[in-house]
């Protein structure tokens, strides 16, 4: 197939068009994508040499809560683990902020807000973990290796020499 | 204004050229000006893709392939014809029946008619059916529309990368399985295990041969890394079939030769005779008798047959190495060569005969020490124009 | 010498005439008034030219902006590595990390999906590219599942530009290259991007904030590293291609 390999000049469409109009490529031999491209051209021409877009300062994305976030982080309280496999899971910081706002609306004084909300969130988390733990214990199947070993072991005298 | 200008220039130029070279075929000029007139029309009046696709069936790639296939078939046909005629000629020359002349007869006839002293058999004259002589042609890797069959075709090494792809697929499946087992708190199957001690991964050459693709060193390393990762899974036995395709059993060909049982002489002593003990130009045979007292006789003399210390040490070495110097008698006849060659031949003969009288451990040690290996080296011939095999006359530039 | 030239002209004229007539007939046949077709002829479907339908394969319903957000498509790299040509696609910067404008991404992605579906409909060869080891198996599997091709390995120079020699035969090159990651490593662009442009092959590429979108025919600004995002792209392209192929099967059955 006749073609021009100068990818720096024009676009693939203009190069094929040039070949077609000059007769170097037969209209019936045109590439398969040619009609599709003409029907649905891209938003911008895929030209190698394009003028750089106007350089505007990038918009900074900031929120009202960032002030509260900064307060938590300055005390080293903002970090916690998050389950990213669960799309509905809340981050530690999100809980802290909602707790903070709740306490603030309740009229708790400004100085105690941070500590109090951190305490409450930590307490909640520990409670949740306590609820979860016994669940796991019950699900251990009686046939598993661990249970068998545990049943046979004499735990009290495990360190005593025979 | 500029538009008009360019138009006139365009139209004028061909005319002037035409007038200058009037004997030139005019169609070419017409052709060169033609498209510029209809330039906008070409793009506006393209045939519909649907209509085109009805007419077009085979791709260029397939057409080229079919052409080459046809060429190749014709070529092979011609070669076949020539081979058959040649075979008949050969049969007539040998005075045999051309109808019942087999390939074996052909080989024999060629060897008789064209005796060759060339060392490499591949370089000797031969006459084989064309299928064996000309390399087989690759089958088409794409269909009629030119679409390749293999989904990794464009990587250039589809079979090799397919192996890596499959391995990755297996690793993911095993990981999923492991997760499931852990979640269910089930016990792992105690019977399932993978025994890999007796085998190794295919070497690069073997892998290349089995895939019919050449691979690079780094790609082979990647292959090994991926396979090791697959094997490291505790449930690797689930894809045993896949793994074993790329493993080869370790060669257990040590001592493949049967160790001979000793025979007994009239005194009731066990003895073994090894014939054809050779090194350099020396040829001889060695007999070992057990039990004995460490007596050595070489061509009727004792160890002093050799005047130097080096050959004596050579002869004693296998006996001392195996600790049998006082419990066997050695008797040998040796001729040809010099002292070192004779000593080497006797050394090998003694070691070879001792196999029947030592433990298996010792046998392996002897193997490792190189006692059971033959030394096939021979004297290298002298080259013309120089004093020795390798030695060159002294040469000074100025 | 003159006679053949005239003869040639005559033939050319005839061919033109036929071409034009045939074409006008076809055009007339295919461009039936659209509203009439969509409203009144539900049961008796007139054959539409897929190119005249704005979204023949219904790719717009494949995803929502929320899906993109959930798949973390909006995350770019840090500000320092920004390529200036990516500026129009940005929404802003969150504490130094660039965030893509997902509305723009969605538009670009729909266009790219539509193009891919059309190429699949026309029986084109589609090749997937990705040089990120973490995602390459996923990409290869996608290619396998939709009956297309993948190249996620080291790119030997000249696979496109010197194909007939490298493959040892006349080889049909892909008709569309989909790059799920246009970089070879963090510094260099994938050579196939340039080679596709050289060989007149259109490309679709997921371009992150540190990539250069200029040579990509249909750039889709978005995160090209996160497995979740790659999984989403793979799913979308697979579905679009399968839709295109299903339509193709229908067409082939009608013809035969």
UniProtKB/TrEMBL annotation, chain A:
<dbReference type="InterPro" id="IPR059242">
    <property type="entry name" value="mS23_dom"/>
</dbReference>
<feature type="region of interest" description="Disordered">
    <location>
        <begin position="120"/>
        <end position="141"/>
    </location>
</feature>
<dbReference type="Pfam" id="PF10484">
    <property type="entry name" value="MRP-S23"/>
</dbReference>
<dbReference type="GO" id="GO:0006412">
    <property type="term" value="P:translation"/>
</dbReference>
<dbReference type="InterPro" id="IPR023611">
    <property type="entry name" value="mS23_dom_met"/>
</dbReference>
<feature type="compositionally biased region" description="Basic and acidic residues">
    <location>
        <begin position="120"/>
        <end position="136"/>
    </location>
</feature>
<dbReference type="InterPro" id="IPR019520">
    <property type="entry name" value="Ribosomal_mS23_met"/>
</dbReference>
<keyword id="KW-0687">Ribonucleoprotein</keyword>
<dbReference type="GO" id="GO:0005840">
    <property type="term" value="C:ribosome"/>
</dbReference>
<keyword id="KW-0689">Ribosomal protein</keyword>
<keyword id="KW-0496">Mitochondrion</keyword>
<dbReference type="GO" id="GO:0003735">
    <property type="term" value="F:structural constituent of ribosome"/>
</dbReference>
<comment type="similarity">
    <text>Belongs to the mitochondrion-specific ribosomal protein mS23 family.</text>
</comment>
<dbReference type="GO" id="GO:0005739">
    <property type="term" value="C:mitochondrion"/>
</dbReference>
<feature type="domain" description="Small ribosomal subunit protein mS23 conserved">
    <location>
        <begin position="2"/>
        <end position="121"/>
    </location>
</feature>
UniProtKB/TrEMBL annotation, chain B:
<dbReference type="InterPro" id="IPR020568">
    <property type="entry name" value="Ribosomal_Su5_D2-typ_SF"/>
</dbReference>
<keyword id="KW-0689">Ribosomal protein</keyword>
<feature type="compositionally biased region" description="Basic residues">
    <location>
        <begin position="375"/>
        <end position="398"/>
    </location>
</feature>
<dbReference type="GO" id="GO:0003735">
    <property type="term" value="F:structural constituent of ribosome"/>
</dbReference>
<comment type="similarity">
    <text>Belongs to the universal ribosomal protein uS9 family.</text>
</comment>
<dbReference type="InterPro" id="IPR014721">
    <property type="entry name" value="Ribsml_uS5_D2-typ_fold_subgr"/>
</dbReference>
<feature type="region of interest" description="Disordered">
    <location>
        <begin position="373"/>
        <end position="398"/>
    </location>
</feature>
<dbReference type="InterPro" id="IPR000754">
    <property type="entry name" value="Ribosomal_uS9"/>
</dbReference>
<keyword id="KW-0809">Transit peptide</keyword>
<protein>
    <recommendedName>
        <fullName>Small ribosomal subunit protein uS9m</fullName>
    </recommendedName>
</protein>
<keyword id="KW-0687">Ribonucleoprotein</keyword>
<dbReference type="Pfam" id="PF00380">
    <property type="entry name" value="Ribosomal_S9"/>
</dbReference>
<dbReference type="GO" id="GO:0005763">
    <property type="term" value="C:mitochondrial small ribosomal subunit"/>
</dbReference>
<dbReference type="GO" id="GO:0005743">
    <property type="term" value="C:mitochondrial inner membrane"/>
</dbReference>
<dbReference type="GO" id="GO:0003723">
    <property type="term" value="F:RNA binding"/>
</dbReference>
TrEMBL record, chain C:
<keyword id="KW-0689">Ribosomal protein</keyword>
<dbReference type="GO" id="GO:0003735">
    <property type="term" value="F:structural constituent of ribosome"/>
</dbReference>
<protein>
    <recommendedName>
        <fullName>Small ribosomal subunit protein uS2m</fullName>
    </recommendedName>
</protein>
<keyword id="KW-0687">Ribonucleoprotein</keyword>
<dbReference type="GO" id="GO:0005763">
    <property type="term" value="C:mitochondrial small ribosomal subunit"/>
</dbReference>
<dbReference type="GO" id="GO:0006412">
    <property type="term" value="P:translation"/>
</dbReference>
<comment type="function">
    <text>Required for mitoribosome formation and stability, and mitochondrial translation.</text>
</comment>
<dbReference type="InterPro" id="IPR001865">
    <property type="entry name" value="Ribosomal_uS2"/>
</dbReference>
<dbReference type="InterPro" id="IPR023591">
    <property type="entry name" value="Ribosomal_uS2_flav_dom_sf"/>
</dbReference>
<dbReference type="InterPro" id="IPR005706">
    <property type="entry name" value="Ribosomal_uS2_bac/mit/plastid"/>
</dbReference>
<comment type="similarity">
    <text>Belongs to the universal ribosomal protein uS2 family.</text>
</comment>
<keyword id="KW-0496">Mitochondrion</keyword>
<dbReference type="GO" id="GO:0005743">
    <property type="term" value="C:mitochondrial inner membrane"/>
</dbReference>
<dbReference type="Pfam" id="PF00318">
    <property type="entry name" value="Ribosomal_S2"/>
</dbReference>
């Amino acid at each position: 197939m006749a073609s021009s390999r100068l990818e720096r000049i024009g676009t693939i469409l203009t190069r094929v068009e040039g070949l077609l109009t000059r007769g170097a490529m037969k209209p019936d031999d045109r590439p398969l994508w040619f009609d599709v491209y003409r029907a649905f051209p891209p938003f911008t021409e895929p030209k190698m040499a394009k003028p750089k877009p106007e350089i505007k300062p990038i918009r900074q994305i900031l929120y009202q809560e960032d002030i509260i976030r900064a307060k938590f982080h300055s005390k080293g309280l903002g970090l916690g683990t998050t389950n990213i496999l669960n799309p509905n899971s809340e981050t530690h910081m999100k809980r802290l902020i909602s707790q903070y706002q709740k306490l603030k609306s309740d009229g708790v004084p400004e100085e105690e807000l941070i500590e109090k909300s951190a305490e409450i969130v930590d307490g909640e988390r520990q409670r949740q973990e306590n609820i979860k733990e016994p669940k796991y214990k019950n699900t251990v199947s009686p046939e598993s290796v661990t249970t068998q070993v545990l049943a046979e072991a004499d735990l009290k005298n495990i360190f005593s020499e025979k | 204004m500029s538009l008009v200008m360019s138009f006139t220039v365009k139209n004028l130029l061909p005319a002037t050229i035409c007038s200058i070279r009037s004997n030139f075929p005019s169609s070419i000029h017409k052709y060169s000006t033609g498209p510029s007139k209809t330039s906008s029309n070409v793009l506006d009046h393209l045939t519909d893709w649907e209509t085109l696709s009805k007419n077009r069936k085979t791709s260029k790639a397939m057409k080229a392939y079919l052409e080459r296939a046809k060429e190749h078939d014709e070529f092979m046909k011609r070669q076949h014809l020539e081979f058959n005629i040649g075979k008949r000629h050969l049969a007539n020359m040998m005075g045999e029946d051309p109808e019942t002349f087999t390939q074996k007869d052909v080989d024999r006839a060629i060897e008789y008619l064209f005796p060759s002293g060339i060392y490499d058999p591949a370089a000797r004259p031969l006459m084989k059916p064309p299928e064996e002589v000309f390399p087989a042609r690759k089958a088409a890797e794409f269909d009629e529309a030119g679409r390749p069959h293999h989904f990794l075709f464009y990587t250039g090494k589809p079979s090799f990368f397919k192996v890596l792809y499959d391995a990755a697929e297996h690793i993911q499946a095993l990981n999923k399985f492991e997760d499931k087992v852990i979640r269910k708190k089930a016990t792992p199957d105690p019977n399932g295990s993978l025994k890999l001690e007796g085998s190794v991964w295919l070497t690069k050459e073997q892998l290349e041969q089995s895939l019919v693709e050449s691979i690079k060193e780094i790609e082979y390393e990647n292959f090994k890394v991926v396979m090791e990762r697959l094997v490291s899974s505790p449930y690797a036995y689930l894809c045993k079939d896949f793994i074993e395709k790329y493993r080869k059993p370790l060669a257990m060909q040590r001592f493949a030769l049967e160790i001979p049982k000793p025979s007994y002489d009239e005194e009731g002593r066990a003895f073994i005779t090894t014939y054809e003990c050779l090194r350099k130009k020396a040829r001889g045979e060695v007999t070992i008798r057990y039990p004995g007292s460490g007596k050595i006789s070489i061509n009727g003399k004792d160890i002093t047959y050799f005047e130097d210390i080096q050959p004596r040490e050579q002869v004693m070495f296998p006996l001392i190495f195996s600790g049998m110097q006082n419990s066997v008698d050695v008797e040998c006849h040796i001729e040809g060569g010099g002292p070192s060659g004779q000593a080497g031949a006797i050394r090998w003969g003694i070691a070879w005969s001792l196999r029947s009288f030592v433990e298996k451990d010792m046998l392996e040690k002897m193997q490792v020490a190189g006692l059971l290996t033959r030394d096939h080296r021979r004297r290298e011939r002298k080259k013309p124009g120089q004093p020795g095999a390798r030695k060159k006359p002294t040469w000074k530039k100025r | 010498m003159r006679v053949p030239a005239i003869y040639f002209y005559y033939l050319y004229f005839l061919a033109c005439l036929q071409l034009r007539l045939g074409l006008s007939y076809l055009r007339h046949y295919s461009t039936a008034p659209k509203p009439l077709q969509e409203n009144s002829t539900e049961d008796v479907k007139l054959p539409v030219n897929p190119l005249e339908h704005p979204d023949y394969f219904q790719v717009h319903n494949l995803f929502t902006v929320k899906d993109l957000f959930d798949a973390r498509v909006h995350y770019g790299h840090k500000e320092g590595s920004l390529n200036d040509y990516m500026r129009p696609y940005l929404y802003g910067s969150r504490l130094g990390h660039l965030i893509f404008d997902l509305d723009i991404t969605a538009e670009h992605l729909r266009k790219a999906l539509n193009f891919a579906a059309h190429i699949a409909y026309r029986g084109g060869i589609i090749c997937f590219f990705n040089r990120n080891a973490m995602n390459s198996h996923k990409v290869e599997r996608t290619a396998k599942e939709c009956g297309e091709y993948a190249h996620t390995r080291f790119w030997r120079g000249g696979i496109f530009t010197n194909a007939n020699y490298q493959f040892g035969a006349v080889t049909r090159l892909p008709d569309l290259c989909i790059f799920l990651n246009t970089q070879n490593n963090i510094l260099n662009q994938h050579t196939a991007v340039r080679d596709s442009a050289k060989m007149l092959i259109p490309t679709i590429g997921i371009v992150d904030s540190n990539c250069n979108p200029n040579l990509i025919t249909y750039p889709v600004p978005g995160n090209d590293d996160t497995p979740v995002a790659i999984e989403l792209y793979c799913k979308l392209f697979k579905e679009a291609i399968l839709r295109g192929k299903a339509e193709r099967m229908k067409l082939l059955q009608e013809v035969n």
